[in-house]
Amino acid sequence: MRIATPSWTSHRGTALDVALEVLINGPVSRAQIARTLDLSAGSLTRLAQPLIESGLLVEVGEQSSGHVGRPSRLLDVVADSRHFIGIKLTGDSALGVVTNLRAQVVTQASTPLESREPSAVIAALGHLVGELRASVQEVTAVGLGIGGLVAPDGTVLAAPFLEWVNVELGARLEAATGLPVVVANDLVAFTEYERWFGGGRNLERFAVVTLGAGIGYGLVAGGLVVQSDDAGLGLIGHWPVDPYGPLCEAGHRGCARTILTQSAISGAVSEALKSDVSYDQALDLAAAGDLAARTIVENAARGLGHLIAAIANLTMPQLVILGGEGVRLVSVAGPAVRQGLSERRDPRATDVALLTTSGDDAEWCRGAAVLALQTHVLGTDTSTGNEEASERTAAAAVGLPPAS
Ligand SMILES: [Zn+2]
């Protein structure tokens, strides 16, 4: 029996939409909420009053409309009224954060994994959750992002970098911590953060591309993360970006994972220089003008541009968000990314809006915390699969396990 996440509010329908609008965009004026949700002032007052009385929303001052008439009162949530833990699990460590109701990081901690054996990993996760929850009064739920294939019940069907098959991670971590736990593919988590609180907030269509040990992709269309049973397989990693590149293990020449991953770039530079260099060293060398490193890094950046062009041509996003621990490639070789992008776009096409995130590992954790936060806010009971909420959080994306 899984533990149900306690519900943020019992209100449903348009009242929940009002609460969500304030959570995601607050502080926001009543006039703005009424416009966005197409409500009359009277309807909004009727819907908002019980939300304010229950302490879910608060009035936080007024905003002049700039026109004649009364200023509109602002509504907000109390961001620190709830806390969530978000964890990113990799092959050798677990990093966790505590966030508030707005997914802002309050504190973080990490633990190395001594072993990849499920019992040992779950014990380490239990310890990490214990350390994190001690920093706040109460934790509502835990979210966990993992590079792999995850069933809706939180069972990890396949996580190659941990060599896991069918590990009931969600249920076992709940038993270890006594807290509700949501487990999902890490790209889904990353994309959900961007959809609710990040650069994709209020956008109908946007894409996420992450660079790192693998290449990840998430797509939001119609305001929802596009869902697929294949989330967690390396779909985008096999997209061709360089016709002369090396072969991947599936026999593709120059697919994204052979050109754009951290190990592909550091490996190619190491081979050229006959000396082992790390990913960051490879980028440093390229930035300093080393000819071999610069050629390899700019070729990768141009390949990334081709990949973004394909995404833009096929899905017409309003924004492409670039993230992941390897995203520094974009700042070191930005012009090459733009060059690759323009090579594969119709010259009349609009410029693709790009947003580069920090690449900090905590971004993955914040995404995982949003998974937990969404089940709380939308009232998803992970053990039963609440239909309304599962429709709202309909989510999937594609993540690659580390190439090593
Ligand atoms: Zn491939």
Textual characterization of the structure:
With 404 residues, the chain is α+β, with helices and mostly antiparallel strands. The protein has three domains: 14-77, Winged helix-like DNA-binding domain superfamily/Winged helix DNA-binding domain (Arc Repressor Mutant, subunit A, Orthogonal Bundle), CATH 1.10.10; 81-187 and 363-383, Nucleotidyltransferase, domain 5 (2-Layer Sandwich), CATH 3.30.420.40; 193-356, ATPase, nucleotide binding domain (Nucleotidyltransferase, domain 5). Helices cover 39% and strands 20% of the residues. The protein contains 14 helices and 17 strands. It has helices at residues 14-25, 30-37, 41-53, 118-133, 169-177, 186-196, 256-259, 262-273, 279-287, 291-315, 328-332, 334-343, 362-378, 387-392; strands at 28-29, 57-63, 72-77, 84-89, 93-99, 105-112, 141-146, 149-150, 156-159, 164-167, 181-185, 206-211, 215-221, 224-225, 319-323, 354-356, 397-398. Strands 12, 13, 14, 15, 16 and 17 form a six-stranded mixed β-sheet that branches. A five-stranded mixed β-sheet has the order 6-5-4-7-11. Strand 13 (215-221) and strand 14 form a beta hairpin. The protein is globular and about 70 Å long. Residues 238, 248, 250, 252, 255, 257 line the site of zinc ion (ZN).
Low-pLDDT sequence parts: 381-404
Bound molecules: zinc ion
Q: What's the CATH superfamily of the largest domain, by name?
A: ATPase, nucleotide binding domain
- CATH level-two architecture of the largest domain: 2-Layer Sandwich
Classify the fold: give the CATH topology of the largest domain: Nucleotidyltransferase, domain 5
Distance between the termini: 36 Å
The portion of residues forming beta strands comes to: 15-25%
Structural class: alpha+beta
Find the count of extended strands (DSSP E, 2+ residues).
17
